[in-house]
TrEMBL record:
Keywords: Carboxypeptidase, Hydrolase, Protease, Signal. Pfam families: Peptidase_S10. The keyword Cytoplasm does not apply. Belongs to the peptidase S10 family. This is Peptidase S10, serine carboxypeptidase, alpha/Beta hydrolase. GO terms for biological process: proteolysis. Residues 1-30 form the signal peptide. GO terms for molecular function: serine-type carboxypeptidase activity. SUPFAM superfamilies: alpha/beta-Hydrolases. It comes from the Eukaryota.
Length: 167
């Protein structure tokens, strides 16, 4: 098989996603305001915060979140709490492929995928908190063996606990 830019694009998309995941893992051990991201030229023009919120009886589940402040009027605009379906699908996918402020540009005339502003981002009208839930999804994890157990009612309780803590 002859390698060309077209054949290599899925590989470079994978590398960009891996780089972003590594970057977020590095920053995820505390609340962090993110100013720049790999693949994006310059500082991001919106407020992006990532971090963990401990939930459950003894905070045995650590839920990872991405918070993007509204680019319009953060004081008046609504707050959307995005919990991905699945389970097992990271909120990073919605952040990059659906309603988040950035999207992946794989069609930029090079073999390198880049991040570009999403013209249709919901963050133009609302603040969004993207949550990796349950434990094991995205960057969220459990501290105990028992906390890895999950069901619809457990996830609902953890999500409720999360919402109470981030108010």
């Amino acid at each position: 098989m002859k390698w060309s830019g077209e054949n290599l694009m899925p590989f470079f998309l994978f590398i960009l996603l891996l780089t972003l995941q590594s970057y977020f893992i590095t920053l995820s051990h505390s609340q962090s305001i993110i100013k720049n991201l790999p693949g994006y030229s310059g500082d991001v023009p919106f407020k992006l915060e990532t971090g963990y919120v401990g939930v459950g009886k003894n905070e045995e589940v650590q839920l990872f979140y991405y918070f993007v402040e509204s680019q319009n009027n953060p004081e008046e605009d609504p707050l959307i709490c995005y919990i991905p379906g699945g389970p097992g699908s990271s909120a990073l996918l919605a952040f990059l492929y659906e309603m988040g402020p950035l999207s992946i540009n794989a069609d930029n005339g090079t073999t390198n995928a880049t991040l570009v502003l999403n013209e249709n981002s919901w963050t133009k009208m609302a603040s969004i908190i993207f949550v990796d839930i349950p434990a094991g999804t995205g960057f969220s994890y459990a501290k105990t063996k028992e906390a890895w157990v999950s069901s619809d009612s457990i996830v609902a309780d953890l999500a409720h606990d999360f919402v109470k803590k981030v108010q």
